[in-house]
Amino acid sequence: MTDSKPDIDPNLCPLCNKDNRCASQLSQAQALDCWCQSPQIEFTQAMLSQVPQDAKNKACICQACAISLSQLTSL
């Protein structure tokens, strides 16, 4: 019997499992219009360290989690 982990869904936030609304998942042309390209959003190392290892570089953090984590790390 193999112990397989479920595949990572690139459309779900790895922190809250809700739709991450990632435009780059739709197409490269839309990637520049993604909410994550906003200058108000900064993905810090502390924020990215919250992503489980098996989801790194496979699924994007959603806007709600990014805002929440950026507020926590700026305190």
Poorly predicted runs are: none
Structural class: mainly alpha
Q: What's the total count of β strands? A: 0
Give the integer mean of the pLDDT values: 83
Q: Identify the overall geometry.
A: globular
Order of helices and strands: HHH
- State the helicity in percent bands: 25-40%
What distance separates the N and C termini?
47 Å
Q: Main β-sheet: number of strands, strand sense, barrel status? A: none
Radius of gyration: 13 Å
**Helical stretch count?**
3
Percentage of residues in DSSP E strands:
under 5%
Protein name: Cysteine-rich CWC family protein
Organism: Alginatibacterium sediminis
Essential attributes:
single chain; mainly alpha; 25% helix; Cys_rich_CWC; Cysteine-rich CWC family protein
Fold and architecture overview:
This protein is mainly α and 75 residues long. The chain has a domain at 23-73. 25% of the residues lie in helices and 0% in strands. The protein contains three helices and no strands. This is Cysteine-rich CWC family protein. InterPro entries: Cys_rich_CWC (IPR032720).
Secondary structure: elements and pairs:
Blueprint: H1 28-31, H2 45-48, H3 63-73
Offer a quick outline of the entry.
By secondary structure, the chain is mostly helical. The protein is 25% helix and 0% strand.
